[in-house]
Design goal:
With about 190 residues, the protein is mostly beta strands. The chain has 1 helix and 11 strands.
Length: about 190
């Protein structure tokens, strides 16, 4: 399954720039590496539909595969760009030798800091309650917040904090990722 997913993700990365704006986000910490690739399709004057796929691997040999879709719109006022989004992700997670599946619902935000529009504050929160978590899991949650700096028009670097947990059958909570990270985002238009 890993090889099929990685080959599909590679194909998606090579073909997607032909059809839509593409975003690649790489996140690293001492224990985790995560790669997400997304395609943005303009669906309104200031709205985008973003479809993405990603993989996460940590030093405990746990991994997560996801595909998702979210709607994002610029809701800023007074010349302050503010992007808000709502979305869903289908997740496959292996943690503590257990397999967990989930459909997580979530929200995203990104705010340009007014004094210098090259700085952004961004984050997301996804949750899958028991009714949307299956196999060996009971609940999933994912929270991330970070600060980004635009080094040139199509590249950002940043730091942040990420917490991702899975509650397994029997009430045991397993942490997939927790702690500070650095990340880089590339935009292909």
């Amino acid at each position: 399954m890993k090889i099929q997913f990685i080959s599909s993700l590679t194909t998606l990365m090579m073909v997607s720039p032909l059809f839509a704006d593409t975003v690649a986000d790489l996140r690293l910490s001492d224990d985790v590496v995560q790669l997400d690739v997304g395609m943005a399709f303009r669906t309104g004057p200031s709205a985008d539909t973003i479809m993405d796929a990603g993989i996460l691997y940590n030093s405990s040999d746990n991994y997560l595969l996801n595909v998702g879709v979210r709607l994002v719109d610029d809701v800023g006022a007074m010349n302050i760009p503010i992007d808000l989004g709502l979305g869903a992700k289908l997740l496959g997670i292996t943690v503590e030798d257990e397999d967990v599946g989930a459909v997580a619902l979530g929200a995203h935000f990104k705010v340009a800091i007014p004094s210098n529009y090259r700085w952004n504050l961004s984050g997301h929160y996804y949750v899958a309650p028991d009714i949307l978590t299956f196999l060996d899991g009971e609940q999933y949650s994912d929270a991330r917040i970070g600060v980004d700096y635009q080094i040139f028009p199509q590249a950002y670097v940043g730091i942040g904090y990420h917490n991702m947990e899975v509650e397994l059958d029997g009430g045991f909570e397993a942490t997939v990722d927790e702690g500070a990270h650095i990340h880089a985002t590339l935009l292909f238009k």
